[in-house]
Amino acid sequence: MAETTGLIDEELEKARIAWLYFIGGQTQQEIAQRMNVTRLKVNKIIGQVRQQGNVQINVNLPLTDCIELADKVSSRYDLIETIVVPDLDDFMEQKRVIGEAAGSLASGLIEGRDLGVGVGSGRTLSFVVRTVSAKPKFDSWVVGLTGGVTSGSTSNSFAVATTFAHILGVQCHYLTAPIYCANPESRNALLLNDELTDVLARTEIADVGIVSCGNLQMDTSLTQIRVVKDNYDALVKLGAVGEFMGCFLDSFGNPISHFLNESVIALPPDKMKLKPISILVSGGLNKIPIIRAILRAGYVNRLVTNESVAHALLQGPR
Predict the structure, then answer these.
(1) Which end of the chain has fewer CB atoms within 10 angstroms, the N or the C?
(2) Beta bridge pairs of residue 187
(3) What is the DSSP string of 219-257?
(4) pLDDT class for 54, splitting at 50, 70, 90?
């Protein structure tokens, strides 16, 4: 039994070193310090992995502890599937590997099917759409699930949806409106436009939803929008822990009572529940409250995140 356990530990160590080097982009010295082993051992394992043909586009070695962690999260929050990737110290590298893992998941769900795919915004999702390699049937389409922001970025809703549609080779539909209107009345006025309401309806009938979420720290792109910044203190006072497709939620996933939630141009969270495939792609310790809220409310049926977030989701009350 002890011998078997030792072999499993060796394989796990090999898998983690290979993952950190080939996927996580860390140097051999960084890996050696992180895992408290010699650099010589790291170099030897990387060479073995190459010789054994375990390195392709990704590392064909299972990280069993991440798989076990994912299974526990799925069970606790009634998810169809969870993918957990190792923690990385670099902020953008962590987003990249979470996004790429979600892209691989989405590829398998989209390949060869006739469907509508809704996609949100954010830096992590920009990595998702660039990683997808699937080709759906010709009549498939992509739709942005939220309105836009005024500052340009490769991670805003229009750019993410455009890139996704281009990679899939399908038509793209946009919510060509700001994500927040000044008040509910101006939102209602905008929705008198038939083309806009048609696209909003399309966000509801999309078979797939691939989304992220945002915390309420003041350095996020969403909290820099003037109307959000002006109401930031009120949102916090009302118990908001973050936003999901522009809708501000409390710790149990309920939309808070604030006019911004009645002024948003986006798919409502409760409509995400109706989708056969809904994937939340998000990680980082600062996202734990909003990720937990989304899972508590059952808005999505799949999750892609990192180890520390998965561990936190298993602590305390569901």
Answers:
(1) N
(2) none
(3) TSTTTTSHHHHHTHHHHHHTT--EEETTEEE-TTSPBPS
(4) low
